[in-house]
Design goal:
Blueprint: H1 2-18, E1 37-39, E2 47-49, H2 50-57, E3 62-65, H3 67-75, E4 84-87, E5 91-96, E6 110-116, E7 119-125, E8 128-129, E9 132-135, E10 142-146, E11 162-167, E12 173-174, E13 183-187, E14 193-195, E15 203-206, E16 217-222, E17 241-242, E18 246-252, E19 256-257, E20 260-261, E21 265-267, E22 270-271, E23 274-276, E24 279-280, E25 284-285, E26 288-289, E27 292-294, E28 297-298, E29 302-303, E30 306-307, E31 310-312, E32 315-316, E33 320-321, E34 324-325, E35 328-330, E36 333-334, E37 338-339, E38 342-343, E39 347-348, E40 351-353, E41 358-359, E42 361-363, E43 367-368, E44 371-373, E45 387-391, E46 397-402, E47 407-412
Parallel strand pairs: 3-4, 16-18, 17-20, 18-21, 18-22, 19-23, 20-24, 21-25, 22-26, 23-27, 24-28, 25-29, 26-30, 27-31, 28-32, 29-33, 30-34, 31-35, 32-36, 33-37, 34-38, 35-39, 36-40, 37-41, 38-42, 39-43, 40-44, 42-45
Antiparallel strand pairs: 1-2, 4-7, 5-6, 7-8, 7-9, 9-10, 10-11, 11-12, 13-14, 13-15, 45-46, 46-47
Length: 413
Amino acid sequence: MKNRILVFLVFITTILKGQSVDPETFPTVVGSVLGKNVYTNTGGEGKFSVQSIADEVNILDTISATYAEFYTLITGGNLQVGRTYILVDFQTVYDQMDFDAGGSLKPTLVTKTGATEQIWVLALSSNQIASKAYSATYPKDQIQYDWTYNTTLVNGSPAKGRISERIDENNNRTDYDHREIKFIRYDDGNGNFVQINDSGRTSQEFLTFVQNFTGGTVKDNWLGDFYSVGASVGQEYANNVFNGEFIVYNKSSSLFYNNTLFGSEIFSNVLSGNINNNIIYDKAFNNNVSGELKNNIVYGSLSFNLILGDYNDNIFNNDVGYSNLSGSFSNNLMFCPIQDCNLYSVFNSNTVIGSTGLSQCTIESGISGKTIDDITYPILFGNGFKKEILKGSDNNDYIKTFDGTIDQYILIP
């Protein structure tokens, strides 16, 4: 009898050891299960993790992480290849460019932080992500994300990476986050917030393409690869403001920065030279600039110009149109329109005054430091026939015209 009881107890003990608890009595897991373990109930090999199941059969292809967590993973070479990482706390953090009255970067800049945007990136290797990223906040945008940008370039403030290219749903492209980065513009004294340098008056902040994307058509504008030269000009982004009602089909170069295009119509411009510190108050269209266009203020329209040379430090109080400029055109004060003119030489430090336009002129002389007005030289203004300003063999400057019989030469003393 004793032997029978002993065998029965051994049998019962074996059963209880194989399944000592009822799994149906376990509480339901709340939250992520990746850190949990699964236990066998048959006295087999023991336990295994839910994470090991996910790794084995690739159940999950996304991993949510903060920027700090992601930075630790990628710098430690611990990204999971083929997984998409969701950066749940990305924000554009930048030092807002601000210039003093002389155009120098102020010693103290304000670090600005944009709204939270969810960024998705794909791991190509344990320490590399794909160049193309995605925004859950703006799903129609095409973006590139630079995870290495962990401090701002001037103040060294903590950052969370940066958007190094954004093509929005209207096909506007920049090498920075033009949905968030804003630029300071100062009052010019007439209530126009167009001055880049501190005027001592009040200021406002503007996005690149029209304040808050309102006020008109903003489409197909491409600003070039500014990050490749940003350090050389002391900036980390381009500091341009396009603020009009009809802004389409503009393309610009890597050296396009610190410009304010304030006109009602800005379209079909190809700007591939060194273009900076310009203010255009009215229309700017159908210009092809491959030379320098710097430090100009145009109160009228800048239209249909081919600029191959230097076009710098000019103030225009009227329109500039239909001109071919392949020489140096600098430091001029213009009070009348310049239209249908070809400038092949130096035209510097001149003041041009007229009640009508300076048109149909070809300038092939190094004319500098002259005042040209419609009283002294009426033949240059207000007519549609061709004139030339050229240098004679005596090194004097002349206006050349044809009176129907012979060429006429008028000395410009």
